[in-house]
Amino acid sequence: MTQRQRLFVGGAWVEPDDGHYEVVDPATEQTVGWAPEASRKQVHAAAAAAREAFGPWSRRSPEERAAVLARAADVMQRNLVPYADLARAESGATTGTARGMQVGVAVARFRRYARVEPAERPLPPQINEAGPFGGAAVLGALAVRQPVGVVTCITSYNNPWANPAGKVAPALAAGNTVVVKPAPQDPLSVYRMAEALQEAGAPPGVVNVVGGSRPEAGEAAVDCPDVDMVSFTGSTAVGQRIAEVCGRSMKRQLMELGGKGAALVFDDADLDAAVAGIGTTFSFYSGQICTAPTRVIAQRGVYDRLVSRLSGYARHLTVGDPRERATVVGPVISSAHRDRVESYVRLGRKEGARLVAGGERPPCERGFYIAPTLLADCTPDMRVVREEIFGPVVVVVPFDDEEEGVALANDSDYGLIDYVWSGDVARAFRVARRLRAGGVGVNTVGRNMEAPFGGFKRSGVGRDVGSYALHAYSELQAIVWPG
User: Fold this and answer.
1) Which residues form the Aldehyde dehydrogenase domain (predicted)?
2) Shared domain check, 242 and 343
3) Which residue among the candidates 290, 342, 378, 388 is catalytic per the annotation?
4) C-alpha distances in Å from residue 71, one per residue of 59, 162, 190
5) In terms of domains, do 381 and 319 share one?
6) Does one domain contain both 235 and 294?
7) Taking a C-beta distance cutoff of 8 angstroms, is the pair 64, 36 a contact?
8) Cβ(262)–Cβ(82) under 8 Å?
9) Which domain holds residue 207?
10) pLDDT for 33-64, tens place per residue?
């Protein structure tokens, strides 16, 4: 493709001040397209456009805003195949993942927030006794959700449709306007989302997309005085820097950061279910997912069988071109990231881990591929156990009893989503409540998309998904009156 993408600012498609950069297909290493490099001035212009649009948009009825989201979902559904083809090309996802988990989830999220929910909640009346401010009175009250204002949405590369949709849709539904800074690796899909919103009738300035491969665009989108809130998905290190900037000007933050999900597997677990769940680390977007159960903590009675079965599972997964129907594991996002993941595998072996499966590059002529890799006999102090690798790599640590298993699971800087596999449901739920994680899957890696999502510790700040996202993108206002 030779098409050069333009920025979307104030309802207009504008040429970037700083030129374009190449977007590369991780599977073929060929050019997918050319993405725009926004200047700091253009990012601030996008925020100014969002600020100007905020008043009229926030005063529209919730039903009018919902109608725009519903029409945008229709546009995305109608274009699902070409949108998914683009997402597959720039992210390296398999066809099934691009259609179902990327564009398909984005459509579902826009439809979800096209459902109008009450923004006001009556509170119990309060009886105030007579005092220096007057006689006794009954005071009524309302808790009202008000939009925050202009929201900067900084999205991750591992899902160029679902991740921005999970920010943009609830933010707009709540009455905010947005400035979207897409991930530099696969930004083109986010501009298609902007086109869908424009076609759906989103007024100029309500949605703006300004990307770039250098840090300047993201920095400008965070520190701009017109921005009231930053919603970020990405690494903990970058999230910390954003939080420092937001703290200086008291900007609201929603942070979905790193993960190192613990998967406790007890002796009485259903191994078929555990292996299939843990195996998603290898197959779902090549392990580039913060919710993946990458840190397996297995009870000794089942340890050897689990390692053996995970090894067989990993070895039989088809690695290759994500366009092929048989492919289960596609490439990672870039050559640099492949090198990073491979360096962790070497480090794990040096630290004393046993390489059970993978560890080598598949025989592909082009593309940034890594074979699904399993490291066993790990110890809690190893860096491969403690640090987020973000690739198709699973590490396994043994434990003896419930107390030790819980302690090992909680011995982490992260706390996004953990997992428990046990045939004793009472124990599974007891253990789940003791885990210091924002979410716990009991005998499943599935998610309920109305449940709150977010992390403990260094895995993030705040909660979104379902109704919780509407609260995340709102300020609560109290209105009080005499009864």
Assistant:
1) 13-478
2) no
3) 290
4) 20, 17, 17
5) yes
6) no
7) no
8) no
9) 7-257+459-482
10) 999 999 999 999 999 999 999 999 999 999 99
Q: Is residue 378 domain-resident?
A: yes
Total tally of structural domains belonging to the chain: 2
What pLDDT sits at residue 2? 58
Q: Are residues 277 and 425 in the same domain?
A: yes
Asked whether residue 308 carries a pLDDT value surpassing 80, the answer given is: yes
Cα–Cα distance, 451 to 164 (Å, whole number): 18
Round the CA-based radius of gyration of the chain to a whole number and report it.
24
Quick check: 417 and 440 in contact, CB under 8 A? Answer: yes
Q: Which of 256, 342, 378, 388 is catalytic?
A: 256
- Average pLDDT of the chain? 96
Residue 116 belongs to a domain: yes
pLDDT band at 178 (very low <50, low <70, confident <90, very high): very high
Q: Do 47 and 28 belong to one domain? A: yes
The structure tokens listed for 401 are: 């009893």
Rounded to an integer, what distance in angstroms lies between the CA atom of residue 221 and that of residue 209? 10
Residue 1 confidence (pLDDT) above 60 = no
263-294, pLDDT tens digit by residue?
999 999 999 999 999 999 999 899 999 999 99
Which CATH number covers residue 282? 3.40.309.10
Q: 290 catalytic, yes or no?
A: yes
C-alpha separations of 452 from 196, 229, 284 in Å = 27, 19, 22
2 in a domain, yes or no?
no
Can 378 be counted among the known catalytic residues? no
DSSP string across 229-292:
EEEEES-HHHHHHHHHHHHHHT-EEEEE-----EEEE-TTS-HHHHHHHHTHHHHGGGG--TT-
Q: Which residue is it, tokens 């996008």? A: 46
Q: What is the pLDDT of residue 133?
A: 66
Tell me: pLDDT of 132 over 80. Answer: no
Phi/psi of residue 276, nearest 5 degrees: -65, -40
- On whether residue 243 sits in a domain, the answer given is yes
Q: Are residues 402 and 276 in the same domain?
A: yes
Give one DSSP letter per residue of 356-401, joined into a string.
EE--S--S-SSS-----EEEES--TTSHHHHS---SSEEEEEEESS
Q: What percent of the chain has pLDDT over 70?
A: 99
User: Is residue 205 domain-shared with residue 105, that is, in the same domain?
Assistant: yes
